Amino acid sequence: MKLFFRFLTLVAVLAMNLADVAPAWALTSRIKDIASLQAGRDNQLIGYGLIVGLQGTGDGFRSSPFTEQSMRAMLQNLGISTQGGQSSAKNTAAVMVTANLPPFASPGSRIDVTVSSLGDATSLRGGTLVMTSLSGADGQIYAVAQGAVIVSGFQAQGQAATVTEGVTTAGRVPGGAIIERELPSRFKDSVNLVLQLRNPDFSTAIRIADIVNGYASARFGGPVAEAKDSQEVVVQKPRAADLTRLMADIENLIVETDTPAKVVINERTGTIVIGSDVRVSPVAVSYGTLTVQVTETPQIIQPEPFSRGRTAVQPQTDIAAEQTGGRVAIIDGPDLRTLVAGLNNIGVKPDGIIAILQGIKSAGALQAELVLQ
Fold first, then answer.
1. What's phi and psi for 97, nearest 5 deg?
2. pTM over 0.90
3. Distance separating alpha carbons of residues 41 and 100, to the nearest angstrom
4. CA–CA distance, 136 with 145 (Å, rounded to integer)
5. How many alpha carbons lie under 13 Å from residue 170 in its C-beta half-sphere?
6. Residue 340 CB: number of other CB atoms within 10 A?
7. Of residues 63 and 123, which shows the higher confidence score?
8. Domains of the chain by range and CATH?
9. Residue 59's CB: how many other CB atoms inside 10 A?
């Protein structure tokens, strides 16, 4: 736990030193790093396919009848009759195939796909995905996937033991899908650019609009950007501007970012993340821990000779209570370094710091948003 506190202190010292030495560098970012283009988002694709070539780790046709139906339909499409025959080999598995179609993808380019088992297959290692069409939300086919499946996990079993590492019922096909259709909308058909902030903030949105307008006034003779809200900044395309070159120039502009003061707490893992803008009003804190230990030591009681008694068990319970801590410390956090130092002076574990921060927030002394995960 001492190492945890030293880590918090080191993070605070580094943050303060960076703020003192190079505040402009520590608080500024390129527009491309804090915002994304609305027209440049990914599109999700999905498909249903078969993986063949498994070493007896595929679906059982009795428990997964859809696998057998799909295999028969595939063979019939290839001109192979399957009437009267029934296979019991577990070398085929039905899978769902998913992929993300990147923005502005052109036909002929390749993307990665992910396969996930639908039936009772135990492993997809060594299998090959058969040609599978991938459709978008509009029902149109945008890509076709096929290729060898790569599985990171493995499974080994014997008659009395089984060893499994990772997930063996899901895998990837790197570059396994070829794009066959481009998206209906094109980038150059747009009349404006819509920038979406990854971390919505009104101050940052206004600063982006001001920086873009300053660039546009010097380049095109007038402002072109407007902050719609805390997340969107709309940039109108000047008549004499090329949209691609305009976006390339805008995304490299430097903007001073702003973030709200937050304290993020994960009670399950004991993780505490304190933002650099968190402030704490002067407050006195006392933290004590009550430990109760219950010990059971039953005793066996034997009857006297010739007494016709019975052997009995007499319960005996010892309860010990111990209370530790209880020191009162004053926490005054005008900056991150002072706040971390004040928490370290109390000398409690991470779960204690979580309780202290929640108490400070309830007292109204924590000038930040408390996020519990």
1. -110, 125
2. no
3. 10
4. 14
5. 8
6. 24
7. 123
8. 43-179 (no CATH), 186-257 (3.30.70.3400), 262-302+311-372 (no CATH)
9. 28
**Res 289 pLDDT > 90:** no
Residue among 167, 153, 99 nearest 129 (CA): 99
Largest CA distance in the chain: 115
Q: Structure tokens of 36?
A: 């994304």
Q: How far apart are CA 246 and CA 307, in angstroms?
A: 104
Count of Cβ atoms closer than 10 Å to residue 200 Cβ: 13
Residue pLDDT, tens place only, 79-101? 887 776 666 678 999 999 999 99
Pairwise CA distance, residues 242 & 237, whole Å: 8
Task: Convert the pLDDT of each residue in 20-75 to its tens digit.
Answer: 433 433 478 899 999 988 877 788 999 999 999 998 888 888 888 888 888 888 88
Strand pairing partners for 48?
96
- At residue 192, the 3 state secondary structure works out as strand
Query: Given CA atoms 75, 80, 84, 87 in this order, what sign does their dihedral have?
Result: negative
d(CA 213, CA 216): 5
Angstrom distances, CA of residue 161 to CA of 57, 121, 155, 164: 17, 19, 11, 10
350, 270 in Cβ contact below 8 A? yes
pLDDT tens for each residue of 257-284: 888 888 888 878 878 888 878 888 887 7
Let me know the angle formed at the C-alpha of 76 by 75 and 81, rounded to the nearest 5 degrees: 90
Q: Which pLDDT belongs to residue 27?
A: 73
DSSP-assigned letter for residue 39: G
pLDDT at 324: 61
Mean pLDDT lowest among 53-67, 226-240, 287-301: 287-301
> DSSP label at 329?
E
User: pLDDT value at position 335?
Assistant: 67
Q: Residue 115 has which token pair?
A: 């396969």
Crossing angle for the helix pair 336-346 and 350-362, to the nearest 10 degrees: 120
User: How far are the Cα atoms of 6, 119, 240, 289, 327 from residue 115, in angstroms, in the given order?
Assistant: 44, 12, 47, 50, 56
